[in-house]
Structures are given as C-alpha cells and as structure tokens.
Write a structure and sequence with these properties.
The chain has no helices and six strands. With 80 residues, it is an all-beta fold. The strands form two sheets. Strands 1-6-3 form a three-stranded antiparallel sheet, with no helix packed on it. The chain has a three-stranded antiparallel sheet with strand order 2-5-4, with no helix packed on it.
Length: 80
C-alpha cells in the first residue's frame, strides 16, 4: 500500500504509476481518492507487470475528470 499526491495544476484525468517488476502478469489495485471522495473516484483501468494506469471520474456524471489539485490517492496493490 502507498499514497500518491497528485500535485497542483494540470488537467489530467489519467495517470501511470511505475511498479516493481515482481508481478508475473500484472497488478490488481484498489485506489481511493481520500481528499475529495464525495465528488470524485479513481479506478484502475490497465496494468502491466511494471505499471498501473488509473483514471479519475466525476461521481455525478460518471465521465473522466481531472483530479483536484493536491488530491491524495491511496493505493492498495497486489501482484498476480
């Protein structure tokens, strides 16, 4: 488990996190936006043995949306 601080500025709604090359097939991650959980949610959308791709969504529309500046994402990942 680890946290990622999105930082400030920008309009990104997707991101790629580098992972250790210890997974045989990929990574299964549960991701929670612990800063703005009422208005946004983040989900894993792709994986490789060395990366996890996540996308942020607006809770009202369900559409991809930029993270809020300084959002903190809590990752809980398991290799498979």
């Amino acid at each position: 488990a680890f946290r990622v601080d999105v930082g400030t500025g920008g309009t990104a709604s997707t991101g790629v996190v580098a992972m250790n090359a210890t997974a045989a097939t990929g990574w299964a991650c549960n991701v929670d936006d612990i800063t703005t959980p009422a208005s946004e949610f983040t989900r894993q959308t792709a994986t490789t043995t060395t990366t996890v791709t996540v996308t942020n969504y607006d809770r009202t529309t369900g559409l991809a949306a930029a993270w809020t500046a300084s959002d903190i994402l809590q990752f809980n990942c398991q290799g498979y």
